[in-house]
């Protein structure tokens, strides 16, 4: 905890690796509750990312020392998570309220752990927390929708679809707060590297050796919004099918979620098909409500593309043209890639286009 609480300073002053190397080997048996185990995963994942990338992309550490690797792998196994920073570490477990009595808005939230990147990193994490919060009514609507199909209650299903559409639109609006709180140049040049993994990353082509765990290097993908359960669950409920390549990546990302989240997606997937129900009902209102959900989801994905273009593609071009500046040399190997390791725009466009293809034809 002492190291994690000083992480930005230790990384910026190039002292983190020295501090970690002096750390005692911690025993996970003392972590009794789920909350303690989750906290351990967050702390160890933050320290790990800082340790690997302390010297930037050109000199990543190839070996995670035993006193970090052993407890990290052990607590990861207990939780069913991989031993790397995942969306649930960076976002879902990494916020607190300043005043528990007040509303959950960005002014009343704070993060627990950080990397270099200052206010922009804080904004990036907290806007993502608010995106997850905006999805809560949508997740509840899925449950209502699945039950409505099972009970053949059209009214309840219409209500659920309406609630889902409003939630998706709220997610899109909330995502817009990125522009207010995150500086694209700092995101691109400073923050991104600490979210990067060691699979499909040219900066670490063979992976990472976890000392005392495996003599062979292991490969894990970096943090990615594709590790959030929200859109996976929406896609399964609405019956959106992705291309082989995108679908395979999304499926792999489910192994980076808490097991209960992955199980929720699979539960939605196993439920009776909403699309089939809508088509066989011959109910025009249901068809319209279904299509409005799919359209809202495609709009969210289109908006996400514009955000990613600003924070990755445009920022990359600016970083290239920028002569010596106060910002570090931007990571080259990850230039056109998302932190999860995908060729980002092709992936996002494919996912958006497949969403649009799910719109059902209106009956004449």
UniProtKB/TrEMBL annotation:
<keyword id="KW-0479">Metal-binding</keyword>
<keyword id="KW-0391">Immunity</keyword>
<dbReference type="GO" id="GO:0033754">
    <property type="term" value="F:indoleamine 2,3-dioxygenase activity"/>
</dbReference>
<dbReference type="GO" id="GO:0046872">
    <property type="term" value="F:metal ion binding"/>
</dbReference>
<dbReference type="GO" id="GO:0019441">
    <property type="term" value="P:L-tryptophan catabolic process to kynurenine"/>
</dbReference>
<keyword id="KW-0408">Iron</keyword>
<feature type="binding site" description="proximal binding residue">
    <location>
        <position position="304"/>
    </location>
    <ligand>
        <name>heme b</name>
    </ligand>
</feature>
<dbReference type="GO" id="GO:0034354">
    <property type="term" value="P:'de novo' NAD+ biosynthetic process from L-tryptophan"/>
</dbReference>
<dbReference type="GO" id="GO:0020037">
    <property type="term" value="F:heme binding"/>
</dbReference>
<keyword id="KW-0223">Dioxygenase</keyword>
<comment type="similarity">
    <text>Belongs to the indoleamine 2,3-dioxygenase family.</text>
</comment>
<dbReference type="InterPro" id="IPR000898">
    <property type="entry name" value="Indolamine_dOase"/>
</dbReference>
<dbReference type="Pfam" id="PF01231">
    <property type="entry name" value="IDO"/>
</dbReference>
<dbReference type="GO" id="GO:0005737">
    <property type="term" value="C:cytoplasm"/>
</dbReference>
<keyword id="KW-0349">Heme</keyword>
<dbReference type="GO" id="GO:0002376">
    <property type="term" value="P:immune system process"/>
</dbReference>
<dbReference type="GO" id="GO:0004833">
    <property type="term" value="F:L-tryptophan 2,3-dioxygenase activity"/>
</dbReference>
<dbReference type="InterPro" id="IPR037217">
    <property type="entry name" value="Trp/Indoleamine_2_3_dOase-like"/>
</dbReference>
<keyword id="KW-0823">Tryptophan catabolism</keyword>
<keyword id="KW-0560">Oxidoreductase</keyword>
<comment type="function">
    <text>Catalyzes the first and rate limiting step of the catabolism of tryptophan along the kynurenine pathway. Involved in immune regulation.</text>
</comment>
<protein>
    <recommendedName>
        <fullName>Indoleamine 2,3-dioxygenase 2</fullName>
        <ecNumber>1.13.11.-</ecNumber>
    </recommendedName>
</protein>
